[in-house]
Structures are given as structure tokens and as C-alpha cells.
Amino acid sequence: MEGQGRCGLHPVPLAEAWDSGGWRWTKAERVAYANNLDVEHHLIAVTPRSNRQKADKDVTQWLPIEPARCRYVTEWVAVKRDNQLSVDESERQTLIDLPSQCPAEVA
């Protein structure tokens, strides 16, 4: 998280991870998820303002402005997949619809 005025943003917030299956994790697994710096897309450097705006919202409630939107959705899917987290129906529909608007190299 280098850079002045930057903080870490979880593409899939901790509350969403919990609701999507993280409640099954051990305490050690929850701590590992919250502090994972080993996977590039797991924690993103953003401004504190962006972090506050996003809070614990999922992709149906908040998306960054372009050009970051497509990359964010790709990272959301990767985090959900990598951590075997579930996707609800409204989230699934958003994840189906948005990539069709993204350049091929991102989607």
C-alpha cells in the first residue's frame, strides 16, 4: 500500500466474504483473508475517500468509475473464485452483464 494518501481496499469486503461463506472459516483463515498481500488482486491501493464510499458494499451496490470498473469486476470474480465464496443471484447478474461492456483484454 505504497503512496501518500492510500489505503487498502478489499474488492470483496470482509462482510461480503462472511455472508458468502467466510462464516465457515476458522479464525486463522479469516485473519489470512483480511491480511492477504500475496495475491495482487486481493487488496488494492485506493484513496481513503474511495474506501469510505465502497465500505462493505457488493458489486450490485457500488462500482468504481471507468476505467477501473472492468478491472474491479475481474478482481471481484477472482477473489470469489480463489476463496470459494458464493455468488447470489443479483450479484451473478451484475457479473454477467458488466463484462460485456469491457475491453476483451480485461473481461
Write the layout of secondary structure elements.
Blueprint (H helix, E strand, L loop, with lengths): L6 E3 L4 H6 L7 H8 L9 E3 L1 H7 L13 H15 L6 H9 L10
Antiparallel strand pairs: 1-2
Tell me the strand percentage band.
Answer: 5-15%
Q: What's the tally of helices? A: 5
Shape: globular
The overall average pLDDT, rounded, is 83
Secondary-structure element order, as H and E?
EHHEHHH
Number of domains: 1
Uncertain regions spanning at least 5 consecutive residues: none
| Number of strand elements | 2
Helix/strand class: mainly alpha
Major beta sheet, specifics? 2 strands, antiparallel
Largest sheet strand order: 1-2
**How much is the radius of gyration in Å?**
14 Å
Distance between the ends: 25 Å
Helix percentage? 40-55%
Protein name: DUF1524 domain-containing protein
Organism: Streptomyces stelliscabiei
Describe this structure in words.
There is one protein chain. The chain has helices spanning 14-19, 27-34, 48-54, 68-82, 89-97; strands at residues 7-9, 44-46. With 107 residues, it is mainly alpha-helical. It has one domain. Strands 1-2 form a two-stranded antiparallel sheet.
